[in-house]
Amino acid sequence: MKFRNLSIKNKILFGIGLSFLAAMIFLMAAVFYQFENLSSSNEAVLEEKLLEQLYNKYQNLVRTRAIVFAEIYKNNDNLTDEEKENLIADINRNADLENNYFYIYSLEGKTISLPPTPELEGQNRMGYSIKNRYLIKEMLEVVKKGGGQVTYPYINPQTGNIETKYGYVEPIAGTDLFVGSGGYETEFNEIVGSSIKKINEVRNKTLYLSLVIFAAVTLIMFFIILDISSYFNKQVNRLISAFKEVEKGRLDLNLTYESRDEFGRLTRGFNTMLNKINNLTYNDPLTGLPNMNFLQMNLRDALENNKNSSKNLYLFTLITDNLNLINSNYGFQKGNKLLKEIYQRLNKELDNKTIIARKNDEFIFYFTSRSGREKMLSFASEILKNLSFPYEIDEVLIYIKPKIGIAKAAVPDENCSSLLKKSRIAVHFAEDKSKIAFYNRKMDGKLSGRMNLENKLRYAIKEEQFELYYQPQVDGRKNRIIGVEELIRWKHPESGLISPGDFIPLAEDTGMILELGDWILNESIKQLKIWNEKGYNDLKMSVNIAPQQFQEDDFIEKIKSILNDYDVNPAFLELEITERTAIRDVEYTIDVLNRLKKLGVSIAIDDFGTGYSSLEYLNRFAIDKLKIDKSFLHKRDNFNIVKTIIMMGQTLDLEVVAEGVETEEELDFLAANGCYLYQGYYFARPAPAEMIENNFLKNRSLNNEL
Prior knowledge:
Elements: H1 8-74, H2 81-94, E1 102-106, E2 111-113, E3 129-130, E4 133-134, H3 135-144, E5 148-155, E6 162-171, E7 177-184, H4 185-247, H5 262-279, H6 292-305, E8 312-320, H7 323-330, H8 332-349, E9 356-359, E10 362-369, H9 373-387, E11 391-393, E12 396-398, E13 402-408, H10 416-428, E14 436-438, H11 442-463, E15 466-475, E16 480-492, E17 496-498, H12 500-510, H13 513-533, E18 540-544, H14 547-550, H15 555-566, E19 573-578, H16 579-583, H17 586-599, E20 602-608, H18 615-620, E21 625-628, H19 630-633, H20 639-651, E22 655-659, H21 664-672, E23 677-679, E24 687-688, H22 689-697
Parallel strand pairs: 13-14, 16-18, 18-19, 19-20, 20-21, 21-22, 22-23
Antiparallel strand pairs: 1-2, 1-7, 3-4, 5-6, 6-7, 8-10, 8-13, 9-10, 11-12, 15-16, 15-23, 15-24, 16-17
Helix pairs in contact: 1-4, 7-8, 13-15
């Protein structure tokens, strides 16, 4: 009978049984081989270890005896040297040392004590030799080096044969004597033989036990496999029958299941599959949430029912601004897990009856309430607060940038499509600190303005309509400029200077920050080279790095390339990254910072204290400097936070720079707490390179002001 014609039960029985038998035979063969291999190869290792232990034993005995004899010699100054030697010989002769004895010789070769052959005591054995080896001379060579192991031929008094003797000799401090002891080859071989015998006995017992276990397990497995195959056959036939029912159109079929094993899960999966066929149209396959079809169907009914109600209907659109970046950096698997976590948090904030629908990076929900605009803004703020805490996905901390757009249904003529459009327009304007926007009609025009700004920004990057300004960094102890931080400015030919706060977030949202960041790096290092050539060789250039730049695969190679192009010393380049950038992926950050440190570039953590400050992370990062965010310095209530940051820097041996120093009171407070590196309007406003050079670099003191 061919194998393919066997029933599933018999195939399982045959396959598992054959696999098990082959595995057990292979295992037993491996065990036999390993035992045989170990027994032969380990004898040499065993002998080496036992010999090492023997030497250590004699070393400890001899050193102890040498100390005792030295003390006896020292404490009997009233005796002559000969009397001292006789005293030591008597003590050594009467010592109870089981099978060991100590021999004592003078450095001239005189035998002081030799318990097995006392008749040799007093004789000079310097010329004594066995097998052309002058034993005492060889021992003296070792003694002169402070003592050590000796191996030599000697007559075993027990057998009368010449055997190899393993011993240890050491000088007796404060005397011209040395003491030694050892054991014979016969004794050592007996120890080795006894150990090998024990090992072989254990090996043989283990092999016999393995054979018995093998036979018992084989028999037990036969009956287990037989039982399992019968169970498999029953469950498979049950599922085959169910699929035949489905073929007939019974999509409402629901199989019962009792077990929690694979067949139980398969049965549940079968039921779930049929359920999804009915519900797939209205559910998001990733999160299981209602999709837009389901939301719109219910929203239409809600709008219709709310026409004659005194309640307001509010539609919220929540988006994760940086989801594309998260997916790019961490992969879609982590991104999908993140979406589920966002939903879980959002669900806790809302009533159980509220429908939350998902579309791409959007979460959309609505509800009715008698509350007005301010109450809705407050509610949205609470939602964002709880969603903004970091998410731990597969041991990686991920921060999101959520924002909310809110639209209020304008009854009675509001429809589903227009309300959804309004909330989506509103979310585009949620760019202030609150990250919340309530729809108003003016937004329709402003949206086109945002799109226009995006087009202008793309053109500006292409035409390089930007200029770098620089703000000095000051060492208050020396009253001297030690470096500058680059700050980008957009000089639009028609609109004039455009604030970085207007275009940097847009650049990050659209991905244009990568190209813009490369330009900033190149221009900053280029300017540093210009200043170096003018003699400002100890000036450090600080460059801000966007999160997207830091996550690029070729980020470090770009740094190397630009430094090489302008022949600039990496020690005078400082890269500034924010806390959130640093802890987005801790292991990745550690690797990149270590490589930058190896390159010679300095690293500063910018806006420190506004993110997830942790000594644990900081201690693992190869950083050089902390920059205290200016928001802490401008409120006295935050001074304790500033003190803590300064102490953290001192603890980790990091430089600490205070940003945004504007008043003498702030300066005095910082100096009093051990912070002497500053940056802010108190010293200088950001300015173009030429003004920085003329007003500061030509005279590195702070007598001039911009």
